[in-house]
Design goal:
The protein is mostly beta strands and 285 residues long. It has three helices and 17 strands. The longest helix has 16 residues, at 17-32.
Length: 285
Amino acid sequence: MSPPLRNDSHGGQTGDRSRRTFLLGVGAVAALAGCLDDGGDDTENESTDEEDNGRQTSESDASGATPEPAGSDDGTAGGLSRAEARAILPPESLAFRYEPPLDSPFGELWAAVVGQADASAVRAEAESGGYNRVSPQEGTVDRYLGVPVQVDPDGDAVTVFAVNDDGERGPVTEVSVPTAELTADDAEQAVPPEALSFTYEPPDMGEYGSLTIEVTADTGADALVARPKEGPSVFTDRVGDISDDEQVDAGTTLSVAVDPDGDEVTVWATVDGATGVATRWQGPG
């Protein structure tokens, strides 16, 4: 579904602009066919790496099986201890970003692989029952955008598992989803309006334009998520990490595809376990 994370100095917070521009111009419509199915949490979405520029797509399990409880054995050959799981997927190689619901009843927590990892797959399980797994066709999950899992916006927790080449998996870490409401005043204090700069570029190739959001001053936000309302949600951009003490700093950029006939981009901020709207960009129509 998504391109690999860029190798940068912000743990995945700044982007490879040339690759992003190519994807926005040429791959937007094709990528929509591979985005996650938001129709419910009673099937597992298995994400795989395609040869097409390393883009990942998702396939819903056609079996119609109900979600397994967190920690259940899903056919893996045995299990890994936490130490063994962390040896192939160190906790510091993960960054977590929460996206509240926009057009579905569920939020999403993304477990992004921002550092070195030797796991052949990553699985995320929500306490509320949703789960998902990313398995590239070749190599490991080293520096992949990660695995999204549907979560309950009223409160949830997610456990991340590492999977080795033999199909064995073990728990790496757990994180509480920051679903508490961030008030408008707290959001403005953490991300003042002057801390964000917006630059729109009309379509060059393809159907969608692009919006670049630059963080021009250090913020008090643990993570930022930018999502278009009309443009393809597959190009939602996410930076930061809700699981560490660092905030999103100046120089960070986000880039999303937008509908040139009129769009709205919501920017969410997560601060100390709470998430809310930091700002909305209106345009360009």
